[in-house]
Write a structure and sequence with these properties.
Transcription Regulator spoIIAA; Rossmann fold; 3 domains; 7-stranded mixed β-sheet; 10 helices; about 30% strand
Length: about 375
């Protein structure tokens, strides 16, 4: 290993629980390719071992605070084993085994889909350990195949190529996922994220438990919420702007014998506006849009978008109806998310009760000292009139 020397500001970030040190806090840069380096303060004190990414704004990512730690095969086996063991008891055939910084493995994502894994190596430092990581994942899980979905834009900032490649065995183009009484097809090679939105698993199951009457699922994508709604609701309308996504949703509905789902290709904002004008009412509504706030600069417009879509959804609720609304925008904090819901409720003219607040499931741990590990917020709202 070579060493990096960091400023007092950079050292303080580590001491207060955040694993990142930025380029601006480097006093002495390692003269080595991406990998692992020892990190020192200016005084010479050794702070720990970190992943080193020469091209990235996030230059160092903490791996181990132990000055004597050796980041070898045994180290990876221990850290990966701890993360995987934490998921014991999850009653679903697909879940996240490694949630990056949330599991002390910064810039590494590992999702399990039944007998296969999909991984993302999102930093140059992590990429340099690919062979060790793959070997230990195979040993610990015994899966039949491992696919790398290294097509995320963040790899551009690391000086890494974007690609999707098979790392071991074979991985099907479609994998059936079992989740709370329903099944759906994930698309590990081409789907969003690593093939499906695993972070909403618990929220989908919960909304299915309270669904009734006429239901509406906005931004339905492959219909995962709609499938859970259809178990109790009389009729479900699944709305998405992508006809291709709705085709897959229809296939998922047929797979589960759900004949009470109607698929509508439309812009969700337009659909809600038209439904409000027509005086349509729903007993259950789900609003789970994509991330409107991609960065801090877009937050203002994003909040206006979230406000509008929730306002219209609230006005569509029948008396006693339930709305589940969510945001996966990291830049929209929990407090601002709640403020947005409160503002929409005030503008709706309805008396609305906040029944539940939700976040990420156990397999997507949110570390309190690392805000970037938490992004998903959800709220269940009841119309009292």
């Amino acid at each position: 290993m070579t060493r990096a020397v960091v400023s007092a500001k950079g050292a303080l970030r580590w001491r207060t629980g955040h694993p990142w040190i930025f380029r601006s806090d480097l006093i002495e840069r390692p003269a080595t390719p991406p990998g692992v380096v020892a990190v020192h303060e200016r005084s010479g004190q050794l702070l720990g071992q970190a992943l080193w990414s020469p091209a990235s704004e996030i230059s160092l990512r903490l791996l181990d605070r132990d000055p004597a730690a050796t980041i070898d095969q045994a180290w990876w086996r221990n850290r990966l084993s701890r993360a995987i063991t934490r998921r014991d008891g999850i009653d679903a055939s697909a879940c996240r085994l490694v949630h990056g910084e949330g599991d002390g493995l910064p810039s590494l994502v590992v999702d399990r889909y039944d007998r296969w894994l999909v991984v993302q190596l999102l930093s140059a430092g992590m990429e340099s350990f690919r062979e060790m990581i793959v070997a230990e994942l195979l040993s610990l899980t015994g899966v039949e195949g491992i696919l790398a979905r290294n097509d995320a834009a963040v790899r551009d900032r690391e000086g890494l190529a974007r690609n999707t490649e098979l790392l071991h065995g074979e991985v099907p183009r479609e994998i059936e996922v079992r989740e709370g009484g329903i099944t759906y097809l994930a698309a590990p090679w081409t789907g969003q994220k690593t093939g499906a939105f695993l972070d909403q698993r618990e929220n989908r199951i919960r909304v299915g438990q309270v669904a009734r009457g006429r239901a509406l699922d906005c931004f339905s994508y492959h219909g995962s919420f709609a499938l859970h709604l259809a178990a109790r609701a009389d009729h479900v309308i699944a709305v998405d702007s992508s006809g291709e996504a709705l085709d897959r949703a229809a296939q998922n509905a047929a797979r589960n014998g759900r004949s009470n789902i109607e698929f509508v290709e439309a812009n969700a904002f337009d659909y809600l506006r038209d439904a409000e004008r027509a005086g349509t009412k729903f007993e259950t509504v789900v609003v789970d849009p994509p991330a409107f706030a991609k960065n801090k600069q877009s937050l203002g417009n994003a909040i206006r978008g979230y406000h509008e879509i929730n306002l219209r959804a609230m006005r569509l609720l029948a008396p006693g109806g339930m709305l589940f609304t969510a945001s996966c925008s990291y830049h929209l904090t929990k407090s601002r998310f709640l403020e947005m819901i409160e503002g929409a409720a005030a503008d709706s003219g309805r008396r609305l009760s906040l029944r539940e607040l939700s976040g990420q499931p156990l397999d997507h741990p949110e570390i309190l000292s690392i805000p970037e590990t938490g992004y998903l917020k959800g709220a269940l709202v009841e119309a009292m009139d």
